[in-house]
């Protein structure tokens, strides 16, 4: 591969620094891994601002723009990423930037957003009729754009095949999901083995599928205003190996099944069945990662029963088998 692909990130005042540096580091690490193999670099990285020079991020420190976006020929950009951050609202009113993005999009091979950067793409009109995601806290703002199909629990909407997403304009969820997106882009460019090498170098799990939820069952909102539900959520992890039907949970919480289902959806954001399935997957991942038990034992301890049930659920949530996960990431 002789031609360098230019990967650029927008930079503006009060940007979320990790939205810029996280994805760019993935591409930089791909260059390093190729160098280790005696190969040349693939990516040329640039940061674009209103003008060249330092720009203060939301963290208070400065990042340096290499050149002005208005002076950058769009046809020279392979991929442009639009980060989010506290300054995104001002950029949504930045007429010159919006016009440049609108005019440039047809000649940029891939245009994507990280976190609330999706709001900038929506302001341009580039998400009209498309499925899009963003940081969970900004889903409501994105949904104000009537022509955008908001899928707020996705990690990203990139899919080079076009079957489950969009290969030219796409979005990703909050902060670290931008790294998942960048890994998906590297995989599309250089293949899964290279993306796996980069993920290992960055001590990451490769690869969370774009359709995987950005929420963690273990990080669900604390329903402290409903003590009986809070007690049930504390009780469930110690009983994952048991049969946890809706009726069993309702009996434990001293509620009717219908009331319990409504409470889960209102206060946890999902139904009891989905919550328990995600909690079982996360617990199984932790056990496999630490090599604390065999796959059959993990299946039993986490309530999957047979290892085949664990395999199917892993494929559904993580797009990888328990055996492959343990081989790659087990201690």
TrEMBL record:
What are the protein's UniProt keywords?
DNA-binding, Transcription, Transcription regulation
Give the GO biological process terms: positive regulation of metabolic process
Q: Which Pfam families match?
A: DJ-1_PfpI (PF01965), HTH_18 (PF12833)
Superkingdom of source: Bacteria
Q: Where is the HTH araC/xylS-type domain?
A: 230-328
Give one GO molecular function term: DNA-binding transcription factor activity
Q: Give the signal sequence positions.
A: none
Q: Which PROSITE patterns match?
A: HTH_ARAC_FAMILY_1, HTH_ARAC_FAMILY_2
Q: What is this protein called?
A: Transcriptional regulator, AraC family with amidase-like domain
Q: What organism, scientifically named, is this protein from?
A: Pseudomonas duriflava
């Amino acid at each position: 591969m002789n031609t360098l692909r230019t990967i650029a990130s927008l930079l503006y005042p009060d940007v979320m620094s990790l939205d810029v540096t996280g994805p760019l580091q993935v591409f930089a690490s791909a260059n390093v891994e190729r160098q280790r193999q005696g190969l040349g670099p693939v990516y040329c990285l640039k940061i674009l601002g209103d003008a060249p020079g330092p720009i203060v991020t939301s963290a208070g420190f400065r990042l340096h723009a290499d050149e002005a976006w208005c002076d950058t020929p769009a046809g020279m950009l392979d991929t442009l990423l639009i980060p989010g951050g506290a300054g995104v609202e001002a950029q949504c009113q930045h007429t010159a930037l919006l016009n440049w993005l609108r005019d440039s999009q047809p000649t940029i091979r891939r245009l994507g957003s990280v976190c609330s950067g999706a709001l900038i793409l929506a302001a341009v009109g580039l998400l009209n009729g498309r499925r899009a995601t963003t940081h969970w806290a900004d889903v409501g703002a994105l949904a104000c754009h009537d022509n955008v199909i908001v899928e707020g629990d996705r990690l990203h909407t990139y899919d080079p095949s076009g079957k489950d997403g969009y290969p030219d304009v796409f979005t990703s969820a909050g902060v670290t999901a931008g790294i998942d997106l960048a890994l998906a882009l590297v995989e599309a460019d250089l293949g899964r083995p290279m993306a796996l090498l980069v993920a290992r170098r960055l001590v990451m799990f490769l690869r969370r599928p774009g359709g995987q939820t950005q929420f963690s069952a273990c990080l669900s909102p604390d329903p402290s205003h409903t003590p009986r539900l809070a007690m049930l959520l504390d009780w469930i992890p110690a009983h994952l190996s048991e049969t946890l039907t809706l009726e069993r949970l309702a009996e434990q919480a001293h509620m009717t099944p219908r009331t319990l289902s409504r409470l889960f959806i209102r206060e946890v954001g999902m139904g009891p069945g989905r919550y328990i399935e995600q909690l079982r997957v996360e617990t199984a991942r932790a056990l496999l990662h630490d090599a604390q038990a065999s796959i059959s034992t993990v299946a039993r301890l986490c309530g999957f029963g047979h290892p085949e049930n664990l395999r199917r659920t892993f494929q559904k949530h993580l797009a990888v088998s328990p055996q492959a996960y343990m081989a790659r990431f087990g201690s």
